[in-house]
Amino acid sequence: RLIGWDVFVITMAIPPPLNNIFDAPAMRQYRQLFKLMLTVKRAEVALNQAWRQSVILDRIMVRMNRKAPEAMPMKEVVNDAHLVGMELLHLVSNLWSYFVYEVSMAAWTQFQTALSQCKSVDDIRSAHDAYLSNLKVHSLLHKDFTNTRRNIETILQLSRRYCTAQNDLTALLERRIGDIAVIKGVYQGIADELHREMSLLLTTIEEKNLKYDFMNFLQLRLNFNQYYHDNSNRGAADRKSV
Fold first, then answer.
1. CA neighbor of 145 nearest in space, from 214, 91, 96
2. What is the Cα–Cα distance from 204 to 216, expressed in whole angstroms?
3. Distances from the Cα of 12 to the Cαs of 24, 30, 32, 131, 190, in angstroms?
């Protein structure tokens, strides 16, 4: 389901002579980059708010009678929610950090260096075109990264589902509205899909490493301790032992 933020863009009219550099194709690329970074930032903000909501859930659990029959199932779901939430927040925060530092700031530094060597408007236009090309590739907007971008978009959608589940869990604990088994299934589904998408994402990143060496930075940010590879191998071993 689309909401207003999903189609929100910022654009501006570029007057002459700047429109010789910031032409229609260039502005289209800026809008694509803006939409991507806004989507990641929205997910990060929402997950931070969901983390604060987790603190409220912890306080509710502390006040709950531990001998109540529903206490243990609820505690298990709250713990599941914490784990999934921190995993999503780690991934999304590192995505944002990658786009800001490895992509935007690095490209801007190179652009500034190129500008200092320009002697004509044509030189400036060429430097700007190179800057946009750099942004397009490193921000994964190039056609070579279609699958990678699709995996990232799915993970960002999972963040939205997680935040909705947090609201449902809060309503259940505070007002006893909802079914704990249903909510537990939602968290489990999010976790399973997240691990599946991360496995696919890391596979596509590894496939692109030979052609695009900067992908190593993204892989290191998302899986610095080989957690997802270990999880995948452990899952495969478990299936063989069954």
1. 214
2. 12
3. 11, 11, 14, 20, 38
Identify the CA nearest to 107 among candidates 127, 124, 126. Answer: 127
Query: Can you give the pLDDT at residue 239?
Result: 36
Mapping DSSP onto H, E and C, the string for 83-128 reads HHHHHHHHHHHHHHHHHHHHHHHHHHHHHHHHHCCCCCHHHHHHHH
Does the predicted model carry a pTM greater than 0.90? no
Alpha helix (H) residue ranges in the chain:
24-63, 71-97, 106-115, 121-138, 146-175, 180-208, 215-222, 227-241
Which positions ≥6 away from 157 have C-beta within 8 Å?
Answer: none
Tens-digit pLDDT profile for residues 3-16:
777 778 888 889 98
> Would you tell me how many other CB atoms lie within 10 Å of the CB of residue 174?
11
66: buried, middle or exposed (CB in 10 Å: 19+, 13-18, 0-12)? exposed
For the chain, which ranges sit under pLDDT 50? 233-242
Amino acid type, 120: S
Q: Assess contact for 217 and 102: CB atoms under 8 A.
A: yes
